[in-house]
């Protein structure tokens, strides 16, 4: 086929140092208190930064004349999709980090809408139970509450689609 590897894009590295794959970071870690190792996949910093940038762009694009529900629906769609994409692996720390970004961006929106109002009044008007932003129907999606799924090594237990020759 005439395919060639590009020296600029090709990287040979040890799995203990880790490597960035499109959207994810793959690295081998040693289990605490044992000599066993496991491979950990988590969202890369670049993917996390891109998600936070998209949340910021949505907040800037949403006019302050609209209700808070419009902003929450758009941000919830983005965050839920991003979390479901990166759910397999070990993304818990990234999800907790991502939890603070949308909160700050959503709270900047009513701050821009009501410039002379205090934080206490903003929280009373736009937050549910103290600090978490909520509209009449939607509540801001919380990435920190998303459960993760792990890949389980099954080895030879995986059925083969080809007949056994013997």
Fill in the keyword field for this structure.
166 residues; alpha+beta; 3-stranded antiparallel β-sheet; two-stranded antiparallel sheet; 4 helices
Brief account:
The chain is an alpha+beta fold and 166 residues long.
Write the layout of secondary structure elements.
Layout: E1 19-21, E2 24-30, E3 37-43, H1 45-61, H2 68-86, H3 92-113, H4 119-126, E4 127-128, E5 132-133
Antiparallel strand pairs: 1-2, 2-3, 4-5
Helix pairs in contact: 1-2, 1-3, 2-3
What do you see in this structure?
This protein has 166 residues and is α+β, with helices and mostly antiparallel strands. The chain has a domain at 45-144. 40% of the residues lie in helices and 13% in strands. It is built from 4 helices and 5 strands, in the order E-E-E-H-H-H-H-E-E. The protein has helices spanning 45-61, 68-86, 92-113, 119-126; strands spanning 19-21, 24-30, 37-43, 127-128, 132-133. The strands form 2 sheets. A 3-stranded antiparallel beta sheet has the order 1-2-3. Strands 4-5 form a two-stranded antiparallel ribbon. The chain is elongated, with a radius of gyration of 22 Å. The two termini are 34 Å apart. The model has no long low-confidence stretch (mean pLDDT 84).
């Amino acid at each position: 086929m005439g395919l060639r590897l590009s020296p600029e894009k090709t990287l040979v590295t040890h799995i203990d140092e880790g490597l960035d794959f499109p959207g994810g970071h793959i690295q081998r870690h040693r289990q605490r208190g044992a000599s066993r190792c496991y491979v950990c996949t988590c969202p890369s910093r670049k993917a996390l930064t891109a998600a936070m940038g998209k949340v910021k762009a949505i907040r800037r694009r949403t006019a302050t004349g609209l209700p808070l529900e419009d902003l929450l629906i758009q941000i919830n769609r983005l965050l839920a999709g991003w979390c479901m994409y990166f759910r397999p692996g070990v993304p818990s720390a990234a999800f907790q980090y991502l939890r603070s970004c949308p909160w700050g961006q959503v709270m900047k929106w009513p701050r821009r809408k009501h410039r002379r109002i205090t934080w206490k009044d903003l929280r009373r008007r736009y937050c549910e139970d103290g600090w978490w932003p909520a509209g009449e129907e939607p509540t801001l999606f919380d990435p920190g509450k998303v459960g993760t799924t792990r890949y389980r090594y099954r080895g030879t237990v995986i059925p083969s689609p080809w007949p056994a020759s013997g």
